[in-house]
Design a protein that fits this description.
The complex is a heterodimer of chains A (about 400) and B (about 240). Helix content of chain A is about 55%, strand content about 15%. Chain A has 14 helices and eleven strands. With about 240 residues, chain B is of the alpha/beta class. The longest helix of chain B has 16 residues. Classes of the chains: A alpha+beta (about 400), B alpha/beta (about 240). At the A-B interface, helix 1, helix 10, helix 11 and helix 14 of A face helix 3 and helix 4 of B.
Amino acid sequence: MSLFWTAFGELVARPMRSALTVSTFVISVAIAVVLISAGGGLEHVVQRILRDLGEGQVAVTPGRTTGLGGVRRSGRQVRLRALDLEGIEEGLPSFDGVAYYFDLRGGGATSWKYSIPWSPTRAVSRNYRRVRQLPIVEGRWFTPVEEVEGHWVTVLNEGLRRMIFRDHPAVGQWIEWNGRRMTVVGVVRDEALFPYIFFIPYRTVGALADARWVSGLIARPRPDVEWDRATRELRRVLGGIGGFDPTDTNAVEIETNEEFTARVRVVTLALHALVVTIAIVSILLGGLGVANMMVIGVTERTREIGLRKALGATRGAVFRHFFVEALVLLVPGGALGVVLGAVACRLVRMLPVSSTYTATVQFDLGASLLCVVALGGVAMVSATLPARRASRLAPAEALRWE
Amino acid sequence: MGVTERERAATPLIELRGITKDYVTGGNRVRALRGVDLRVDAGEYVAIMGPSGSGKSTLMNIIGCLDNPTSGSYLLSGRDVSRLGESDLARVRNREIGFVFQSFNLLPRASALVNVALPLVYAGLAARERSTRAKQALDAVGLAERATHRPSELSGGQSQRVAVARALVTGPSILLADEPTGNLDSTTAGEILELFGEIHARGNTVILVTHEEVVATRANRVIHILDGRVASDLSR
């Protein structure tokens, strides 16, 4: 305890140097904490965007069969009946789920206060949300009764909800689309299709259009199944329903975003590596700054070390003295740096630039402590090495030191 | 038992035999001491004199265990200090020798009391005991009322008194002073030398290095060092 107060007194006696050293340490830790938290946030964001873009799904669109001469134009339009697709999952063991939908375009949605000139609607099968894994941000999805009886209910995506309700509550309100009024029961996060879209039960769309044939399907292959095997299985089953040759690749278009998401992941990895590199450089530069101050601070006290030895200090006592002095400086500095970093992360999250990104700049305590240990380690070595060197000098030599 | 007492009485406090000290500066080897033989008994007041570069400060550093001789042996109270380990040497410097330097060598940011108490930290005393003894030591040099002052708030003479109090606080048998009046005016120097006289009168061994004749006249024995050798050794 005595050593602690002695060290504390020494630091207080050199206010400017102590303040500069602590400031450099605190700022370096805080910058590294923010950068590492931002790097981690970046991955979360990309994962979220990829999920929103339909990662792990395939989009199936009916095409034209290959006709005479091997061209599509002479083939026939493939049509898949919604009724035939009910329970299709049971014949597709390579898939976790298959949903169908019917797109209806033209016209914009209107709320009691705001309107938008163009917003498509998508009538969806019962399992659509599960297959697409759409997160509900407000309210709920359709109930089985609403789906079976074709109620005039709707679920908006976040973009449309913002456009036509702004800061007002949406759930429980109505919207109008092409003269039809429907009740908003929920809001989902879905940025993959259109910026502004709303969903209605498949049965409901029958009152607006002939929806016997679906616009397309969304299927989610099981992660452990090979892509080729899954598509062959899907084409075989759909060929049976649509009456086309399963080997005819023109009959249905099966699209996946595997290649795209893989590229995005590589870019993300590179960006994350860049951010981590900047954080490491920040730690190194901060470490060098702190080390510089520590080395100068201790080296210029070589005479003092000589004096202490002349008065009876052992090498161990000198080492302990400077070790505790560095600890007294670095422990509160590290704590302050972590707190500052956490506050900065919070401030970044409050920035009104991009809710998607800033919301995921999460303070990372583990990485922060690692920064403190790395920087603190550099600083401790910088403080104790010159002290150790000076303590090994004969007192007379240390006392002569200029 | 009687033999042991006689042996103890016959053992000099300090005995140097053939001490040499070499320094290597700029690739050249410089011999500062060239075989010094010296014996100092307990209770003596010795002045070591010599011109600049004669080796007198080097000799004092070796006597004070602040530096190691290149060759020769040094017996302190019959014990060969050249064979002592680092911790034992630190203990010798702490318990048996008190140092007074020409430039005072006080910690500039610490109070007089903290400066005086510093050797007691390394003696392992508790804070309360350190404070009590440091106050007593300051009182003994007439600076009790200046305990909380920093060196920058003290005059040269007061600073040197603090240094003397620090040298004596652990109750050493030897007081070593290197040009203790070198930075003081003649009046203050006289006061410090009076203090040294009092310390000697209390039974301490005082060894001071000086190039001033007037300072050396206070001692009972004057040793002249010239070119790293003892040129003369005169007792009064």
